[in-house]
């Protein structure tokens, strides 16, 4: 019993002598969504408790910092006794994975915009062309000309004075010629315009159909894996014997 007590006291003395004093280390790491790996432990930088404060023995510590959008930073922190032990770092270099995601997202957005522009723009242009071919303001002008023809016809019929009769007949003939000319122009415009609209609609359909085949079906997503966190795997190989294997890698 005395020997056991002596061994316990000796162990306690040795542990006390070899124990190291802990120093405060403050970490100012940006962005505040970063992850710090140091001294075989991983810490998430939390904005609600910023800066991160750790208790570490005096010494040199390799560390790694990672954030979802940025490359991993590898550095070393030297903890000194009674020192400030403040570490400041801002991640600025975007990771290749995030750059690739941004490129895919830009291509996706541009392609979607192009497809929507074609689907909305081409039919709109064709409808506008159809309206210009069918009317385009010509019907209103023809209606006004027709009213003038009727006005001068009635004035010609109801006139008594020879000079007024001659004047109104001249006005009637001119207005009638203008009216007939406008009708012929509208008829020719419709023949040509409807043909152009038909061809334009056909090619618009082909273009939209081709664009729909090339449009992206799924929006790119970015879900990076934290390289500083070890994966944990549990295999229950011998379920009957109750043997379970654990792997950290």
Descriptive account of the structure:
With 249 residues, the protein is an alpha+beta fold. It has two domains: 20-94, Immunoglobulin-like; 98-214. 52% of the residues lie in helices and 24% in strands. The protein has four helices and nine strands. It has a four-stranded antiparallel beta sheet with strand order 3-2-5-6, with no helix packed on it. Strands 4-1-7 form a three-stranded mixed beta sheet, with no helix packed on it. A two-stranded antiparallel ribbon has the order 8-9. Helix 2 packs antiparallel against helix 4 (162-214) and helix 3 runs antiparallel to helix 4. The longest helix is centred in the C-terminal third of the chain and has 53 residues, at 162-214. The protein is rod-shaped, with a radius of gyration of 43 Å. 8% of the residues are buried. Residues 14-18 and 231-249 have low confidence and may be disordered.
Compute the CA-based radius of gyration.
43 Å
Going by helix content, strand content and strand pairing, the class is alpha+beta
**Average pLDDT metric:** 84
The run of helices and strands is HEEEEEEEHHHEE
Largest sheet: 4 strands, antiparallel
In the residues, how many domains can be counted? Answer: 2
Question: Spans of 5+ residues with little confidence (pLDDT < 50)?
Answer: 14-18, 231-249
Distance between the termini: 45 Å
Report the count of strand segments: 9
Overall geometric form: rod-shaped
Amount of beta strand? 15-25%
In what order do the strands lie side by side in the largest sheet?
3-2-5-6
The total of helices stands at: 4
Helix content: 40-55%
């Amino acid at each position: 019993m005395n020997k056991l007590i002596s061994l316990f006291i000796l162990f306690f003395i040795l542990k006390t002598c070899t124990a190291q004093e802990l120093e405060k280390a403050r970490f100012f790491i940006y962005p505040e969504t970063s992850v710090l790996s140091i001294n075989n432990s991983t810490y998430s930088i939390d904005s609600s408790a910023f800066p991160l404060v750790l208790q570490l023995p005096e010494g040199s510590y390799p560390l790694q910092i990672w954030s979802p959008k940025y490359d991993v930073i590898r550095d070393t922190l030297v903890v000194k006794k009674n020192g400030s032990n403040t570490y400041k770092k801002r991640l600025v270099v975007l990771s290749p994975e995030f750059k690739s995601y941004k490129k895919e997202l830009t291509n996706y957005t541009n392609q979607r915009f192009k497809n929507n522009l074609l689907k909305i723009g081409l039919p709109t242009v064709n409808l506008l062309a159809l309206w210009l071919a069918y009317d385009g303001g010509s019907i209103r002008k023809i209606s006004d000309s027709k009213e003038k023809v009727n006005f001068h016809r009635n004035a010609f019929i109801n006139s008594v004075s020879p000079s007024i009769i001659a004047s109104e007949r001249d006005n009637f003939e001119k207005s009638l010629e203008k009216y007939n000319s406008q009708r012929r122009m509208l008829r020719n415009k419709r023949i040509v315009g409807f043909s152009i609209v038909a061809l334009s609609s056909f090619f618009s359909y082909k273009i939209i159909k081709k664009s729909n085949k090339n449009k992206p079906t799924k929006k790119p997503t970015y879900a990076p894996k934290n390289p500083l966190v070890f994966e944990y795997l549990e295999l229950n190989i011998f379920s009957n014997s109750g043997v379970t294997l654990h792997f950290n890698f």
